[in-house]
Design a protein that fits this description.
- The complex is a heterodimer of chains A (389) and B (135).
- A five-stranded mixed sheet of chain A has the order 1-7-4-2-3, with helices on both faces.
- Chain A is of the alpha/beta class.
- Helices cover 34% and strands 17% of the residues of chain A.
- Classes of the chains: A alpha/beta (389), B mainly beta (135).
- Chain A binds chain B through residues 121-123, 125, 128, 131-142, 144-146, 148-153, 156, 197-203, 246-251, 253, 377, and chain B through 8, 10-15, 19, 23, 41-45, 47, 50-52, 70-79, 83, 85-87, 90, 93-99, 110-111, 121, 127, 129.
Chain lengths: 389, 135
Amino acid sequence: MSIKNKACIAGIFEHPTRKAAGKSVAQLHAECAKGALDDAGLSLRDVDGYFCAGDAPGMLNALTMADYMGLKLRHVDSTDTGGSSYLVHVSHAAQAIAAGKCDVALITLAGRPRSEGSSGTRVRTAPPDVPEAPFENPFGPVTVNLYAMAAMRHMHQYGTTSEQLAWIKVAASHHAQHNPHAMLRDLVTVDEVLASPLISDPLHRLDCCVVSDGGGALLVARPEIARSLKRPLVSVIGAGEASKGLAGGKFDLTCSGAAWSGARAFEEAGVSPSDIRYASIYDSFTITVLIQIEDLGFCDKGEGGRFVADGNLISGSGRLPVNTDGGGLCNNHPANRGGITKVIEAVRQLRGEAHPAVQVKNCTVALAQGTGGSLGTRHGSATLIMERA
Amino acid sequence: MSGETGHRPILAPVVYPETRPFWDAAAQGRLLLKRCVACGEAHYFPRSLCPFCLSDRTEWQQASGRGSIHTYSVTRRAGPVVYVIAYVTLDEGPTMMTNIIDCEPDSVRIGQRVEVVFKPSDGGPPVPMFRPVAA
């Protein structure tokens, strides 16, 4: 069974906050849900499917949030693949709708890592029952040095440079200057990225995404329902998932699961990378974008550095407009999980509702790509392809 | 000196029956791998079931303790101590997460030859780190 054209993204909402010290995580989830329902023109009673991941509070997080928000559900899914979860949720929602298990699925994400003092340089201490923990925790793995090791290997193998990585941040800043909600709105140059402190070689501070509070929500609806609403129609036409790990110690850090999830999504959608007018690419770090762009087939493996350089990701002038909201690098990375904002900006582009300065002309087909976990160890990858119907 | 590990807490590995032989050997300064009797592949970190074929016929094998640096990162801003996290590819095949020690962090390079050296953890068995050797 294919999910092509079996579901539409009928509602989107990105919480405007970037610091929510006075709000609870549950409250943020609910505010996002309300925002997406208002956007779609749907009500709480229309929702019969609910999706969330580990950022929702409690061990039984989906049930906790369903009760908090007053949802009455016939389909529940709390799949957690880190920051890619929410793209997976769109795919799973489309599958559930296609199978008749629900009609309108709500997906929420929210968190307060900024208020809680989260940092990408804190040791990732896995719980002791995680089997790899004794073989990794002693060596000080933190979020940034795991991605840094992937970057270092990519540079060694393909000649990728820090200047090329910096262009990814420069493009994000070009877009973020037009986003009034973006955490970082100042234009930056390649030289400024390179002059920012090295956090973990070869990644500088400006190679890293922001830490922001906030959240987002999506509504995935049966096409008949979506057509009855007064919003531009965005159809899900392809989805792919993949997992990648250290494979018993025989792995290639220069590749991500996007190679597999992307191929599956393109096949289902019946389109190729050259058909994509806009791409949201998960940007926890600059290297994350570069590796995924290669793996999705926008350029050959190893050519990512040359592809992203010289403003090629900037809307209006570049060949592939990427992350026109400013992305995680400048705008927002709520709950340290950027997947949902990737879908939201892709839908804005397809609707023609992106900021006029970054709106892609005739944006008919868009892609959203998420990675969750770490490129340097184990991660989930999810690719979505959407079309303006 | 910044390359030393003594100033950074080395989290004690939790030892389970499945991996006790690894840590017992570590206490004697020996690095063990698991090799699958069914498919012949060596793997790391050690498991009871082979991650290549899921056979439960895996056996411990002593590694040479030599390898080369597959990738690394000088971690400069995670706590007060600069340290080098790395993946080292053992001569037996598998690649493992570790630290490169007993050298200047800025001298570390991909492809550099290294040998295992066990360093004390905070209240647990010693853990395998690596130091450069002449090629």
